[in-house]
Amino acid sequence: xxxxxxxxxxxxxxxxxxxxxxxxxxxxxxxxxxxxxxxxxxxxxxxxxxxxxxxxxxxxxxxxxxxxxxxxxxxxxxxxxxxxxxxxxxxxxxxxxxxxxxxxxxxxxxxxxxxxxxxxxxxxxxxxxxxxxxxxxxxxxxxxxxxxxxxxxxxxxxxxxxxxxxxxxxxxxxxxxxxxxxxxxxxxxxxxxxxxxxxxxxxxxxxxxxxxxxxxxxxxxxxxxxxxxxxxxxxxxxxxxxxxxxxxxxxxxxxxxxxxxxxxxxxxxxxxxxxxxxxxxxxxxxxxxxxxxxxxxxxxxxxxxxxxxxxxxxxxxxxxxxxxxxxxxxxxxxxxxxxxxxxxxxxxxxxxxxxxxxxxxxxxxxxxxxxxxxxxxxxxxxxxxxxxxxxxxxxxxxxxxxxxxxxxxxxxxxxxxxxxxxxxxxxxxxxxxxxxxxxxxxxxxxxxxxxxxxxxxxxxxxxxxxxxxxxxxxxxxxxxxxxxxxxxxxxxxxxxxxxxxxxxxxxxxxxxxxxxxxxxxxxxxxxxxxxxxxxxxxxxxxxxxxxxxxxxxxxxxxxxxxxxxxxxxxxxxxxxxxxxxxxxxxxxxxxxxxxxxxxxxxxxxxxxxxxxxxxxxxxxxxxxxxxxxxxxxxxxxxxxxxxxxxxxxxxxxxxxxxxxxxxxxxxxxxxxxxxxxxxxxxxxxxxxxxxxxxxxxxxxxxxxxxxxxxxxxxxxxxxxxxxxxxxxxxxxx
Length: 733
Description:
Elements: E1 4-8, H1 12-16, E2 20-26, E3 37-40, E4 43-49, E5 55-59, E6 66-70, E7 77-80, E8 86-90, E9 108-110, E10 118-121, H2 123-126, E11 144-148, E12 156-160, E13 163-164, E14 169-172, E15 175-178, E16 195-202, E17 216-222, E18 231-238, E19 242-252, E20 258-269, E21 285-298, E22 302-318, E23 333-350, E24 358-374, E25 377-396, E26 398-418, E27 421-440, E28 444-455, E29 459-473, E30 476-487, H3 491-494, E31 504-507, E32 514-528, E33 531-544, E34 546-549, E35 555-560, E36 565-579, E37 582-597, E38 605-608, E39 615-624, E40 630-639, E41 642-644, E42 662-664, E43 667-677, E44 681-688, E45 723-732
């Protein structure tokens, strides 16, 4: 048989009483495979999926002994599970030509064993769109939406559970990635071809990864050095003049314990696009160079990774013809130059005689240096970060009772200047955490977490969290979660798009950390292995929050919350397939987000948060021809109404209580792609915003950009119309 099966016997007395078969699924490098499907042969309705550690637990069926395993890119396999043992299945990569392979795995799946409601986006799902960077990787996802922050800079931000991306902890392989000053353009700094999968955890996250996962966590798994894909070359072009090239190289050294990877990315846009003839570029010109190199060691008792990353990006937007403030002083221009350096390491001590035990250390150092100009106003920002996380995991008695505990350290040094406003701070935050996980077969899982951070500037933060998963029937799963989180806001980085205006920036007081509680849960019904319905509801309320107030024209206020701030988010999602080549996904999301504003006038008025659609509908349909030679995908977004600013005369001291609300209209967005696969080559062509909808006047007072009414930060919809793109991916294994 073309497979390797290792069966080991653990905890005989506990296993003898178990009615479930448990085990782990890994690849040939012993790396866990998350999202693999495990079922009893001939009974797809019994299917379960491996968790983030590759673990599975499946209820035993009388007289059945054959377990089947499948995962995209790997050969299906079968083992005989006749005894009460812990099984480890090593799956082999599928290296046969494309004409001989039929892939039937879904592009997205729920982690069925995690008590946290976690959605896994696989590489298959990412190929449904061009996915040039992380911000463009959620086009077929109903949970996360992405939008521009303004009409000039090209900055993009995600929204999850009705909250902006600053409340979502974005990590790369559980290392904090997009935070602090990196939030402005960070979604553009992770190329799509570097991504292996994306995990979206909803609700307050695990205490192990930190305090900033207040409403969720987006964890990006990058391409591994020891995967069989030795080379990937990707080229992309679109009708706006954007061009991108990606080259990934991975190799194993002769001793098979060491491997390395070099991931490279280059992109640029040199065209001046002004579709509405208002004299402003609809997209900034830019050029980016992005490199990552890492080495991995895989031993019996030690696994380690070390690497470094460099990024350089230059952006220039504003009026057409603008070059620089010195050469074209009469034109309004936006400029940004960013340099980013990063070093990281991950080390794990393994205990082969006790595979449930481990000791890991994560270290990361980042230097972020950014220089921006908004017309004649400068914004300089520097951030130096040192991060460390020491994690120990073990069991109490048996594998039904596991725990993780450890120490963390975070040091952020900020040096910012916007005009005549200076914001400097040095944060030193040691922390400790403990997390206990109880599992009763695959029916019950309870995750209890406690975390305490000692902040040198703002004092002590105690963070309790709880997650519960309970299977109420064979195909019904309930999850509940609750917990507290906090973060220190960065007004200029998070309000970056609002700075493209003539507004006078006023920070009314010293901004305190934002502190929130998030409660909620989900209910999932798996009618069949390929048909599921899920519903979720989450509620977030703030003890304190930074309010970004642009209710009065000419002013941008930042201040601490006084009063209520709460968000309700509900999502209903139906997924079907793949069946006979078809896949279908439909999701409807409703959001109600209200904040108390009015401090500049001494008032407390509860109002809808701006630029947040109250509801959103997603429909995604895909069809794959036999052997996946041709693939068709289409996605429809219906974006509901959202509150936008109401223009008032500059200097008008209108009361917040007297303000009227204005709402942007509902609009529709359509994306599509056609792909043709060959044994080593994939060619694709697609289109975005094919309905052609765009805002009529995204830049207010575009003819007088140095006047008092100029404002490019009131964006609620697309700035550009339809675009067509094409490209190819060439792979060698």
